[in-house]
Design goal:
The protein has 13 helices and four strands. The protein is mostly helical and 308 residues long. The chain folds into two domains: 7-100 and 182-306, no CATH class; 114-179. Helix 3 crosses helix 4 and helix 3 (82-101) crosses helix 8 (183-203).
Length: 308
């Protein structure tokens, strides 16, 4: 299902997000324009509900699937199926907000970028390397090509050092968790849930994400956990992250007449807050209990919005 993108929303977002979408290896200008307009519209829809990444970097590698790579913050677009593109963009939005709001995820991403080496051991070397590049630049400042190359390296190293210094204080709290727990595996059910909710909310279509999954996989059984059903007759499958929050999905379907009525701000805060608790916890919570917690927290968030 493709949602009509209004001229007004495009104008609004183009003025709100300068240079927001960056395209690499796109050979079809019409396809690039289609994706650009789609994501501008989605970003417009999200304004006021959740913070939106100012920039989105996209590739068009058709030999890969449409997917978001959290390590490089890059969205690969392999086809023009809008629900799956919006879903993967939802991962980008979720990741962007987690980094800003959940310290353990910020810490995990930085540790991942240095292949889980100890920050206190990597940081001094990065600082020494930065000084070498600065000294080298000063000695060869007459070369415009070298100034450009060295300037890029200095910018990269400065960013890496800033990231390392930002998360270094979390070492004592999170190092042991990162070293002994599969953080990404624990994240996956939550990020898939948010991306599905964001997609059906934008398209105002409860069936859109299921239809998209079915179109791509051709497997009804594999796609059934993507449903937002009025009556939940599915059973949790611990091995399938899409199945973990089927009760919460059913709750949303019964709570709201239309998918567009879901409060995305409450949905994000409910999912993100419980993800953080899960990541830092040494004890797991059963899938059934976690669905109950999400339902309760989302309901409380909606109630809080009506309070004077």
């Amino acid at each position: 299902m493709k949602k009509t993108i209004s001229i007004f929303s495009l104008f609004f977002c183009l003025n709100s997000y300068p240079a927001q979408n960056h395209f690499y290896s796109f050979s079809d200008d019409a396809f690039k324009k289609e994706i650009d307009e789609l994501l501008i519209s989605v970003k417009s829809h999200l304004i006021g509900s959740i913070e939106v990444p100012a920039e989105t970097h996209m590739t068009n590698r058709v030999f890969l699937s449409t997917m978001y790579d959290a390590a490089t913050d890059t969205l690969n677009i392999a086809h023009n199926d809008h629900p799956s593109i919006i879903h993967e963009f939802g991962h980008h939005v979720f990741d962007y907000n987690l980094v800003k709001n959940i310290p353990i995820w910020d810490y995990f991403k930085v540790r991942n970028s240095i292949k889980y080496k100890e920050i206190s051991k990597v940081l001094p070397g990065k600082k020494v390397e930065l000084q070498k590049w600065k000294k080298s630049l000063a000695q060869r400042s007459n070369s415009s090509s070298y100034r450009k190359y060295a300037g890029k390296k200095i910018k990269e190293l400065t960013g890496e050092i800033n990231d390392l210094e930002r998360v270094l204080p979390y070492d004592s709290d999170y190092a042991a968790i990162i070293n002994t727990s599969n953080i990404f595996k624990r994240l996956t059910p939550y990020q898939e849930l948010f991306a599905d909710v964001m997609t059906i909310n934008y398209l105002d279509d409860w069936e859109s994400i299921y239809d998209s999954a079915l179109l791509i996989t051709g497997n009804p059984q594999e796609s059934e956990f993507r449903k937002f059903t009025l009556i939940n007759d599915l059973e949790y499958d611990y091995k399938d992250p899409y199945s973990h929050f089927i009760s919460f999905k059913s709750y949303l379907r019964n709570k709201h007449k239309n998918a567009k009525d879901i409060n995305l701000s409450c949905a994000y805060s409910t999912i993100a807050d419980n993800l953080e608790k899960d990541l830092v916890s040494t004890k797991g919570t059963s899938i059934s209990d976690m669905n109950g917690i999400l339902i309760t927290d989302y309901g409380h968030c909606l109630e809080a919005l009506t309070q004077p």
